Amino acid sequence: MRCEAPPDLAGFVATFLEQQGAVVERQPDSLEAILPAALATTLGTSEHLQLAEGAGAGLGFGSLLLERLVTEALAGLPVAGCRLSFEYVKTQGFDRLVAEQLFLSRAKGQVKGQARALGQYLWLTARYLAASDEQREGQVSVLANLETGVPVPDMAERLLQTPKDYVLEPGPTAWTAGRLDRLLPILDRRIHQAVTAAIEPFVASMTRRLHRDLASLKEYYTSLGREMTRGLARAGLSDALRQDRQAKIEALPQELARKEEDLVKKYSLRVAVQPAAVMLIQMPVARVLYEVAVGRAKKDLSLTYNPLTKALEPVACEGCGGGLTRGQLCPAMHLLCPACGPRCPRCAGDPARRPLTVKDEPQNVQQGTAKGKGTGN
């Protein structure tokens, strides 16, 4: 993979200022720019900016201006674009492919047609911080079909391995603000599922420690209660002292409950998730019209052949919105995953498990894009 990027510090500064609306003129050892008023205020500079390269010259590592530039560059969500092209996209043999990769119980199906289309995808990466008695941090990512919101297995790995040249292109693209607004809540659910899986060992470790400390605490107070009870039998204790110790023994359960509550608070888990980057991807795909039948009832499915993974993408479950390669159709012909199959959420009218789909008309949005080439079949 090759990426066109500023090769030096001055290149980074010039690129950032231009993206913020500044007019920049770069000399071999200096940089001059006219900044928008808002940007000048944010950076704490005049609108006419002149910088010379080198330490102590205003454009060096460790300078206050560079720190402000980096802070501003990291403040927003980085959005990149990628456009892939393939020399060949599969146009036949879909009957066999569907039979091998899509299993619908008690249903028969046949391919009715196929066509070349433009597939659109969104790759969202997020950072997470899980804090309990200890902390764990990391990042997770989900690459999903922009239309359905269903993650595409292995696509991210294949995309990283595909040779491509990034070339920034100003101007409108096919990405729509409305479509992204509808998709992001769906991907938010996917990201949180990925975070839950990523921190599972950490949660298990904290749970074991909590149970260990709770058991030790209970054992301590149980032993303390027995010891204090035996002490009441000692000769020579005055009635006042015996009553005082009896009151302390009776207060032990409440004290134990408070200590247990403190331990639970100590080991309680707080998870913060923040988007880190977004990649918008366009590439040619094959759309396959597939007709399924259960008895006399029929339903048309739109399947997507992904030339990058060389496989059919999972279909969206009409119950929960998750991807499926195995499933069934309910009596109303809703396509369901194994989890939704026993009780169709659509037929039951369960709003908590409504289908996750994204439909929107294209509008132009200004974004940077990238071109790439790959091979597929």
Give the rounded overall mean pLDDT.
82
Number of strands: 20
Rg from alpha-carbon coordinates = 30 Å
Major sheet size, sense and barrel closure: 7 strands, mixed
Distance between the termini: 21 Å
H/I helix tally = 9
Low-confidence stretches: 1-6, 169-174, 351-373
Helix/strand/pairing category = alpha/beta
Helicity level, as a percent range? 25-40%
Silhouette: flat
Percentage of β-strand residues: 25-35%
Give the ordered list of helices and strands.
EHEEHEEHEHEEEHEEHHHEEEEEEEHEE
Description:
The chain has 377 residues and is of the alpha/beta class. Helices cover 35% and strands 32% of the residues. The chain is built from 9 helices and 20 strands. The protein has helices at residues 9-19, 37-43, 64-75, 94-101, 155-161, 177-198, 200-231, 239-267, 345-348, and strands at 2-3, 23-27, 30-34, 48-53, 58-59, 79-86, 103-104, 108-131, 135-145, 165-166, 172-173, 270-294, 297-306, 311-312, 315-316, 323-324, 326-329, 335-336, 365-366, 371-374. Strands 6, 8, 9, 12, 13, 14 and 20 form a 7-stranded mixed β-sheet that branches. A 4-stranded mixed β-sheet has the order 2-3-4-5, with helices on one face. A hairpin with a 3-residue loop joins strand 8 and strand 9. Helix 7 packs antiparallel against helix 8. It is flat and about 100 Å long.
